[in-house]
Amino acid sequence: MADLAAHAVASPRPGRSFRAGLLWVVPPLLVLLVLFFYPLSLIVREALAPEGEGASLLHIETVLRSREFVSGLYHTVVIAGSATAGCLVLGFVLSLVIAFIPFPGAPIAGRLIDMIIALPTFLMTLAFTFIYGSAGLLNGLLVDAFHLEQPPVDFLYSQWGVILAEITVFTPFVMRPLLAAFSTIEPAQLEVASSLGARPFRVIRQIILPASLPALLAGGSLCLLLTVNEFGIVLFIGAKDVITLPMLVYAKAIQEFDYTSACVIAVVNVVLSLGLYGLYRAIISHFGGGNAGRV
Amino acid sequence: MLAGSRAWRLAVWAVVLPLFAVLYGLPIAVIVLASLARTWNGALPGEFTLLHYAEAFRSDSLDALVTSLMTGAIASTAALACGTWAALALRRRVRLPARLLEAVFFVPSAVPSVSVGLGLLVAFSQPPFLLNGTRAIVLIAHFVLVFAFTFGNVTAGLARVPAECEQIAESLGARPFYRLRRVTLPLLTPYLIAAFSLSFALSMGELGATIMVYPPGWVTMPVRIFALSDRGAIFDAATLTTILGVATLIVLTVLSRVSSRAMLR
Amino acid sequence: MVDITAQEIERCAPLDGVRTASRTSGSRIGFEDVSVAYGGLTVLKSLTLTVHPGEIVALIGPSGSGKTTALRVVAGFVRPSSGRIMIGDRDVTDLAPYDRQIGMVVQNYALFPHMRVEDNVAFGLQAQGAPRDVIRQRVPECLAMVGMSAYGKRYPRELSGGQQQRVAIARALAPKPQVLLLDEPLSALDTQIRRAMIDEIAKLHHDLPDLTVLYVTHDQTEALTLANHIGIMRDGEMQAFGEAQALFRHPPTRFAAEFLGRANLLSVGGLTAAGPGEARVRFGGAELLARNPHNLPEGRDCLLCVRPHHMRFAGEGAVANALTGVVQSVQWQGDVHNITLTAEGESLRMTCVPMAVPPALGDQLRVCFDPSEVTLVPEDAPRG
């Protein structure tokens, strides 16, 4: 039945029951208000008007102008941007292969992707220590092969180490919506294009890429959010000069007991994250959940 | 489909498969190998040993595993109850207030975990809620961090429960709670299990908020692993990571079995 | 679409004639000036309709005509923006669906997939708090009623579409509702099973004469076979309502004539009265005699409604209502021949018993019809 009304359940004349129904949302909302929004508001209060002092913007200015904050913000943005770009490229290529050039081990690859999503992020960093660390597998191989004095590979304890680890960990979050989007492309469409003489790259550019654009945007913005918020990877790499905003919040609060500065930085971090989250939701709702493959 | 010729296809595989193996297969293999290695100075571990595992199950690390499992189970159960409640309350409400409330429930998933931890630390170190230094604060942190994901998953599941079944139940005289218990929740079960699985996995790997708020007696696996790795005991760290990973995957596998049985029925 | 021939339709008299409230103890369904609007869009426009106790009323119309909305208003899933819904003597407009005591069957069966067949059937009784022994007795009874006794322990996914729909009907009837709402119940089934199910529903209603049924369908065969009265819906409005046979024989509007039984409609003019309830009209050069049940005024241009199966071959002599046409197509459909003619620039379809030697394309054919079987229909007012 295509009657307009067939699927509408909400009544066209909302009675008392409608508003009363919405009251059911109060208990979980209350839980969240106490456990999440109340603490969040205290962070903002502490940042704006530290306990025992009056409201002063001087302190905020000091923190925001400090070298460690500027460098933290810089690293956060650079790492998030580079890692997201890497995730998009890698995720697109891997998804393309899994979806359209199926190979014998494809199901296992799919499982592995799901597993990576379920496992803690720092696992990758720890593994990188064994693979790319100064006494790791790669350096061991190279030193043995070329009889070197010093381990030649030394990028792990820089921001490149963080970026590589984040690319590895977060690429699956791009692949999920992409694979969902690819599965909606009709094989017949690709076959027709190929039969008309289009080469693979042309097919990718003209058919696959446009169809997967919403998923790419959604996956990309989600990736940005996750990389801006990532803490475990940065902590485990533990490079002195690679400090991101979450790392800075941790260092200020736990190592220096400077809660006020921690709160100021946290507010900046939260605002940045909420902005990215807004972007992600906007993309999802603009393209409709189905196309963008909500995670 | 895409690659026209066989040679082309083989070329693609030759590039992508090793890439995949190096990126995803190798790290996992390396962690497992390291957990079994006595020394590792060359390309491969020198000697294999089960010493790290014996150590892991003897020391505080076993406590950490139990702590993590309990934290994950409690926080995920609470999040499932709360998230399902919220999802049911907002179901099929298309007006603006409901849409805004939905956005509110999603906000915790956007906030960095360290900031969530900092907030809890600030909020619950002062009256009226004095929870700092208790286990409860860790559970709360995990609950807050997984809640939005549970809410999202249950909301998505509810959208797939056929409206017609529920309406027929109503026409047959089922009042809202009876219908919820006998029709909606049973049809929702697979999605509830999936939601629980995701939040359990997230909780098992949570580090940022936990490291901000954990009390001495309630050390989770990730915190313990970081402590070991920070001390340079990377083989023990690898062992615990393996145990954590295996424990998580076992729980997820069991849950997905249960879920597929629920789906079949 | 099942298209049983029109002869068949006329053979099937309405089930038991029209019942009246005095003969049965069932409940009526009453729409009292019911409108439904979503946003600015009115999907049901002041519908007033009574389904008498024990009667089957079919609402028939194309997609988007508002017929399903009308049914869902009775079920309580759509609230009217104005007007009242009555079930029996109760005003149920503000009652929740679970307080209305109705049975409902929908197109896609909507059986509870996680319950066995018997639990599906027991659901309504359990929800309404029936005692255990009543349920134990009633469930097998209902399964037997629809011939599904052997399937109680199965799960819905193990049944065919037709079987699932039988279970859905048993489930709806188990709590003994006074009112049954059927929303395109047979549309998801294939032709063979659908025919069998029409017979089943007819038999079921024969066994449950008190049951008041509102039947929504887009299939005229189901409506004509099962319903006492038929309402034809279009654009949220009831276009025509009447006793099934009368509506078929004397459609009150062009839309009713076309939608119910695909009639030939000839544009005719110069209406003059000719005897009681009859009128003479001009069709090109020919003068035709027809029934005028709607008392169209003299001189009016109108439509002449001729059912394809009422057209006959005319012999040589002088016959009333004779037309000469040119054969445009001849189709053999097994039990009938369909012939299309053009006469006076209009196309005419006729069906007749299969012929050994059918007319050839381009042949001149003289056809006629009985004045008592053709009806004058007013041209619809311009819409919009």
Automatic annotation (TrEMBL), chain A:
Q: What is its main location?
A: membrane
Can the keyword Transmembrane be found in this entry's annotation? yes
Check the record and name the InterPro entries matching this protein. AminoethylPonate_ABC_perm-PhnU, MetI-like, MetI-like_sf
Q: Where in the cell is it found?
A: Cell inner membrane; Cell membrane
Q: Which UniProt keywords apply?
A: Cell inner membrane, Cell membrane, Membrane, Transmembrane, Transmembrane helix, Transport
Membrane topology value: Multi-pass membrane protein
Domain spans labelled ABC transmembrane type-1: 73-280
Q: Pfam families in the record, alphabetically?
A: BPD_transp_1
Give the stretches traversing the membrane: 21-40, 73-100, 112-135, 155-175, 215-239, 259-280
Biological processes, Gene Ontology terms:
2-aminoethylphosphonate transport; transmembrane transport
Record carries keyword Cell inner membrane: yes
Listed GO CC annotations: plasma membrane
Q: Which family does it belong to?
A: Belongs to the binding-protein-dependent transport system permease family.
* Protein name as annotated: 2-aminoethylphosphonate ABC transporter permease subunit
From TrEMBL, chain B:
| Pfam families noted in UniProt | BPD_transp_1
Q: Which UniProt keywords apply?
A: Cell inner membrane, Cell membrane, Membrane, Transmembrane, Transmembrane helix, Transport
Give the highest taxon in the source lineage.
Answer: Bacteria
Where in the cell does this protein reside?
Cell inner membrane; Cell membrane
Q: Which GO terms describe its cellular component?
A: plasma membrane
Instruction: Identify the SUPFAM superfamilies for this entry.
Output: MetI-like (SSF161098)
Looking at the record, the residues that make up the ABC transmembrane type-1 domain are 65-256
Give the transmembrane ranges.
Answer: 12-37, 65-88, 100-124, 136-159, 188-214, 234-255
User: By what name is this protein known?
Assistant: ABC transporter permease subunit
Task: Give the way it sits in the membrane.
Answer: Multi-pass membrane protein
What PROSITE patterns does the record tag this protein with?
ABC_TM1 (PS50928)
Single GO biological process annotation from the record: transmembrane transport
Q: Mainly resides where?
A: membrane
Species source reads Ancylobacter mangrovi
Task: Give the family per the record.
Answer: Belongs to the binding-protein-dependent transport system permease family.
Instruction: From the UniProt annotation, give the residues forming the signal peptide.
Output: none
* InterPro entries attached to this UniProt entry: MetI-like, MetI-like_sf
Automatic annotation (TrEMBL), chain C:
Keywords from the named record: ATP-binding, Nucleotide-binding, Transport
ABC transporter domain residues are 29-260
- PROSITE patterns given in the database record: ABC_TRANSPORTER_1, ABC_TRANSPORTER_2
Q: Give this protein's Gene Ontology molecular function annotations.
A: ATP binding; ATP hydrolysis activity; transmembrane transporter activity
Q: Which GO terms describe its cellular component?
A: ATP-binding cassette (ABC) transporter complex
Please provide the Gene Ontology terms (biological process) for this protein: quaternary ammonium group transport
Q: Which domain of life is it from?
A: Bacteria
Q: Name one Pfam family in it.
A: ABC_tran
Hey, which family's this protein in?
Belongs to the ABC transporter superfamily.
Spell out the protein name for this chain.
ABC transporter ATP-binding protein
Native species? Ancylobacter mangrovi
